Amino acid sequence: MLTFRQLFDPQSSTYSYLLGDRTAGEAILIDPVFEQAARDAALIRELGLRLVATLDTHAHADHVTGAWLLKKRLGGKIAISAASGAEGADIRLADRDRVSFGKRHVTALATPGHTDGCMTFVLDNESMAFTGDALLIRGCGRTDFQQGSAHRLYQSIKTRIFTLPDDCLLWPGHDYHGLTATSVAEEKVHNPRLGGNISEADFVGYMQNLGLPHPRQIDVAVPANMVCGRPADEALATNDPGWAPLTYTFAGFWEIEPAWVEEHAAELQIVDVRDEDEFAGPLGHIANAQLLPLGDLEKRAAELTKERPVVTVCRAGARSAQAATILKKAGFAKVANMAGGMLRWRAQNLPAQGARD
Ligand SMILES: N[C@@H](CCC(=O)N[C@@H](CS)C(=O)NCC(=O)O)C(=O)O
Ligand SMILES: [Fe+2]
Hints:
By secondary structure, this protein is an alpha/beta fold. It is 25% helix and 24% strand. It has helices at 37-46, 67-74, 150-161, 184-190, 200-208, 218-225, 234-238, 258-263, 276-279, 297-300, 319-329, 341-347; strands at 2-9, 14-21, 26-30, 50-55, 77-81, 91-93, 98-101, 104-110, 119-123, 128-132, 135-136, 139-140, 169-172, 182-183, 247-248, 254-256, 269-272, 290-291, 310-313, 335-338. The strands form four sheets. Strands 1-2-3-4-5-6 form a six-stranded mixed β-sheet, with helices on one face. A six-stranded mixed β-sheet has the order 7-8-9-10-13-14. Strands 15-16-20-19-17-18 form a six-stranded mixed β-sheet. Helix 1 (37-46) packs across helix 2 (67-74). The relative contact order is 0.10. The protein binds glutathione (GSH) and fe (ii) ion. Fe (ii) ion (FE2) binds next to loops.
């Protein structure tokens, strides 16, 4: 019996896929996301499965893979194409290699074009294929960085994905519009970039004029994925301080979601590191937050106690991440950054004092 789950990372709109053989109790996870490793590990445990491998469809440019972190937490092997150039994998996949879980397997098909090392993973009975960013729903991966080639992508999709059975379901690496899956038949007809009779030249012209901004995380994600998501501080990443449902970010600090902060505000020291005028500004601030602007934090850290956990807050979560690092260096063991800052706090309709918009 097959276990199948589609998992979503809202920050990068990435899909991860869990495939398990229930009888054997073995599973693989395709395209895990670093920040979602705790969620994925919990799900795998709850389903009574043992992770035998993580598989990355390619070296991603927009998020860091959870491959290394999941291997540390759950064991199993790291698999990615040899052509990706990534270091630290246990299995360096070549075209048509198989990865087994129990009595089931996926076959890795080389589908270069978005990157040189892209692979599509096809389930043994060809009922499903995981296309990574080669083919997206009514779209496809961009070809304007990381060895991208629209010519190669066209050939990969036409000769390797569109030759799968028509009713083969296709599960993409991302979707930015809320769609979850498609099929070979559907994309052959309705894909606006290369469906129907669209020629290679038409496709190349389309891809040359996408005009997309680079992914926000590209400068962090690509180098991180070239080492399969192994962070600089390995010990920190694997030692969960455990005082809250924290997420370790690849950049090296722990984060906590606004809703948890709101529920536990009374037990916390909430340190708002924005400037005074922002604190009093239209976004408002958290009721019992203490204002300690980032520039003064180091010299005023003694105003905080090491006995209670500290949560740092700013507008979008970047300056407060720096603040969390400063406090950690100053000897605070329980410190976390509030993910997304006051912008996420407000977007989630949590109460803000002095808010005026
Ligand atoms: N806004 C997103 C952009 C993500 C992006 O460029 N995604 C790549 C995949 S790594 C892509 O091919 N996108 C195709 C598209 O958006 O049509 C971010 O900053 O992360
Ligand atoms: Fe990608």
